[in-house]
């Protein structure tokens, strides 16, 4: 079956895929031979599974996890935004503007009081002020911003729960 939105073969994950993805979430640099051993498969069969998971978009990419504090980005802020002119075009324009800002590390279209919830990583309050005044509030349809600062990060990454894959 084809995934109409992506024109890719649809991949229905199973227990083996869950084991592979769980291991890769722990260590994305794991060698295929070690991954295959960990999930009790041959290396060639395991590599085929990984390639299928990548092609389907379930594995969206690989990256290094960087310490925000060690990278000089010690302040995490969540910014709730209200916008005017609710339309798909307006939403896409706001999304494009927000995703073009390097300090924005997460961006969500949400329901409730806000229209967007933005997660940003900045060095300090001066960096936050620059982000808010010079970048976010200059987006034409943004009419209100409310910020919440993280005092301490408890957990900010996966692994994603995959127990629903049978």
Model description:
- With 166 residues, the chain is α+β, with helices and mostly antiparallel strands.
- The chain folds into two domains: 2-56, Arc Repressor Mutant, subunit A (Orthogonal Bundle); 75-149, Lrp/AsnC effector binding domain/regulation of amino acid metabolism (RAM) domain (Alpha-Beta Plaits).
- 34% of the residues lie in helices and 20% in strands.
- The chain has five helices and six strands.
- A four-stranded antiparallel sheet has the order 4-5-3-6. Strands 1-2 form a two-stranded antiparallel ribbon.
- β1 (2-3) and β2 form a beta hairpin.
- α2 (32-38) packs across α3 (43-56).
Keywords:
166 residues, alpha+beta, Arc Repressor Mutant, subunit A, Alpha-Beta Plaits, 2 domains, four-stranded antiparallel beta sheet, 34% helix
Summarize the structure.
The protein has 166 residues and is of the alpha+beta class. It has helices at residues 15-26, 32-38, 43-56, 88-99, 125-136; strands spanning 2-3, 8-9, 75-83, 104-109, 116-122, 142-149.
Instruction: Please provide the count of β strands.
Output: 6
Number of domains: 2
CATH topology of the largest domain: Alpha-Beta Plaits
Instruction: Give the name of the CATH superfamily of the largest domain.
Output: Lrp/AsnC effector binding domain/regulation of amino acid metabolism (RAM) domain
In DSSP terms (H or I, runs of 4 or more residues), the helix count works out at 5
Terminal CA distance reads: 19 Å
The gross shape turns out to be: elongated
User: How helical, in percent, are the residues?
Assistant: 25-40%
Global Rg: 20 Å
Unreliable stretches covering 5 or more consecutive residues: 1-6
Reported CATH architecture of the largest domain: 2-Layer Sandwich
Strand content range: 15-25%
CATH class of the largest domain: Alpha Beta
* Helical/strand content category: alpha+beta
User: How are strands sequenced across the largest beta sheet?
Assistant: 4-5-3-6
Largest sheet: 4 strands, antiparallel
Overall pLDDT confidence: 91
Order of helices and strands: EEHHHEHEEHE
Chain oligomer state: single chain
